[in-house]
Amino acid sequence: MTPAIRIGPLVFPSDLLVLIVAAAVGLLAARLFTRSKQTSQPDTSAVLWRALIIGLVVARLVFVWQYPAHFLENPLRILDLRDGGWAGMAGLGAAWIYALYAALRRKAPRPALLGALVLASAVWIGGGRWLAPTPQAQPELAELALRQLDGAPAGLAAFQGKPTVINLWASWCPPCRREMPAFAAAQAAHPGVNFVFLNQAEAPPAVAEFLQQHAPSLRNVLLDPEGAASRQMSNRGLPATLFLDAQGRLVDLRVGELSAASLAQRLDALQAPASGD
Q: pTM for the full model?
């Protein structure tokens, strides 16, 4: 399944769609489970809504607690949810703890509440696993006809033997511009990781001018003249970031803006297997 869903000119990460579907399944299940019973249906729905909100808040706060240094300078970044920074299993655990508390206190019918939460959890976990890319080589990446800024041919085959992060971007894309400082800092701080910045379908002079003004320290900037990478990998959604292991296998793909904290989270996961060898 594509990691991004296009609706007209808008592109949404598929994991957001999975969360919406999981919440809808839970609420629908609660309605069906309580239809024939003499119980208060709004109580069950209200508990599920509160469990969802508590889960989301806890997932975000645990993520912030894991990467506090990235939020100290500007705590308001905690409220910027566009970076996709979450601790999903912590949030799910919090939602379940609240639901069990509500069931024990008889604030909602136990079978309906727990059954609805089981279904919603199954959809969320199963959907996440379905969306997660299977670690395997991506031949479409190796076949990309790329160029260096001076027009010379280039390819991703030069970046092998180390974990690699490929950022698909364009200078006209506001979230691409916002996340560029985080990538520049990460490239300087992680010499054991290849960072490749693959511009999508812009003319070399425009790319060179942008880099000179806004990101002069970036290395490994290549051109994808046809925008083939974003068309194949992210349904034309920008920015998009691909995470490849040392064997060149795609292990994660994020469509949408990354903050310094959410980038650090993914870099930790990308380098974890190597650290355990």
A: 0.85
